[in-house]
Structures are given as C-alpha cells and as structure tokens.
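Bug #77: duplicate submission created two jobs. Keeping one. Sequence:
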Amino acid sequence: MNVLLSVAFVVCWSSGFIGAKLGAGSADAVTVLMWRFLPLALVLGALAVVRARAAWRGLTARDLLRQCVIGALSQSGYLLTVYYAIQLGVSSGTTALIDGTQPLVAGALAGPLLRQYVSGGQWLGLCLGVTGVLVVTSADAAAVEGVAPWAYAVPFLGMLSLVAATFLESRSRRAVAPSVAMTIHCGTSAVVFTVLAAVAGAAVPPAETSFWLAVGWLVLLATFGGYGLYWLVLRRSGVLRVNTLMFLMAPVTAVWGAVMFGEPFGPQTAAGLAVSLLAVAVVRSGAAGRADGGNPGDVPGRHADNDTPARPRAPRGQPR
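Kept job's structure:
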C-alpha cells in the first residue's frame, strides 16, 4: 500500500509541471494562475467558515501576516517563475529538476542559517546536484531553439523563493494548522495573481477548452491529489521518505514531458538526472548517520501542489 501511495504521490506532484505546460499553450501564466487559485480560495474560505473556525482561534495579526508572506513566497513567487519559465520555452523536466535542488540548497543553508551541522558528504551531494542541473540545462538549451539563456535562471529564482519561505516558516513561534495555512496561502495567491492579471489585462479567461482542461488538471491532480497524498504519505512513512520522493519528480516529469510534448530527452539529459539522483543518495546517506534531532537533510520538505514548503524538523516540527 505504501508503494502505491508513493507512486500516486510522485505522479500527482509531477502533474503540476505538466499542467503548467498545458496552460502555457492557451493563456498567459498569470491568467492560468488566477483561475487556478481564485475558485480554490473561495472554496477553502467557505470551508474555513463552516468547519474549521476552531483552528483559527488564538492566531494574532502577526501570525496571519507571516503566513501571508510565506504564501506569497512559496506559492505566488515560486509558481509564477515556474509557469513563466515553461512559457518561455524551458522544458517541464528541466524546470522540475531545477526546482528539485531546493532540498539540497535548504539542507546546505541549514548550517549557517539554523546553526545545524552539515557534513562534508552533504556538501558533496549539493555539488553533485548542482552539476546534474547544469548538465540537464545545457542539454535542454542545445536541443530547444529560441529559448533565451536567461530563461533558465527564472526557475532558480522560484527555487530560492521556496527556500526563503521554508526558513521563514522554520522561525515561526506558533504552529499553524495545515488547513489554516493552506487557506491563507491560497487566498494570498488568489489576490496576488488576480491583481497581476488585472494589471496585465489578462484577467478574462480564454474560451478554449484546453484552458479549462489545464485549470481542472492543476486543481484536481496537482492541488487536491498531490497535497492530499503528501499528508497521507507523511503520516504513514515520515518526512524523510517524502523528501526522498521529491527527487523523483524531475525524472518522472522529464519522461512525461518527452512523451506528451516531445521535449528533449537524450543521453545527456539522462546522465544529468542520474547525477542528480546520485546527489540524493549522498545527501541521504550523510543524513542517515545523524541523530533525529538535527538532520539538515530533513529541512526541505514541501507540500504538494508544487508550491508550499514544509517546516524543517530541526529545530522545530514539520510541517506548518
């Protein structure tokens, strides 16, 4: 059962990158994101009023503001860069791989920012992970014509936005219920993307069926499917397994994108993905020898829907 849940989780999470590719062909990134989050925020807000009022008690204005900032970083900033990169022509697999370095970067930064010990083996894993990203990115750039070199830096900005949200959440003094956090984050994203779409004159959705197919794909598979399975796998198998599964998103998305959209997947791409998976093994082996209380390898969990970072296990519990 755990294996089946893990497989379903990887597929649903990876579907977010594929849905972004579907949406890129029918509308601007802000249009897709606006109509992805606006109905979702309304539904979650209604559920919070009807069923989850107790979870909001005791929260101060500062707590709510912090969650809004975390949501703006982990959803708005992160997703906008992912969608924009794919709209610029960066392949979904390359975007997923760049995003997949977030656990490695967060684990490395746990030392200077959270004063946790980071072993030499884990630094080696970080270097291997970056090498794998560079190999895949160079292969993608060589195979895809018309993509500006700077476009590959866009998903890196999103990854850094996700890392910033992770560490901001780690310093929260008050634990916020997951349902509350998701409602605030989705509400924040709905406001951000609606304003951006209105300013850009892109708030009106296109009438094409492909647009609504992409939105439905993202809401059902990436948000509800991925997010729900994230929590289920987390409860059954723990944060370490969830974080390890995150690194499978890049190869799954790369294969999926190659089959569905004809994106490049040659020997160089396969080699880069193999190096990245080796980086995971190195980091995990370095973390496995550590005590449970201070494992920087556990820093970078993320909620499903490709957008929300989880709180590091050390020094506090996971997730927000």
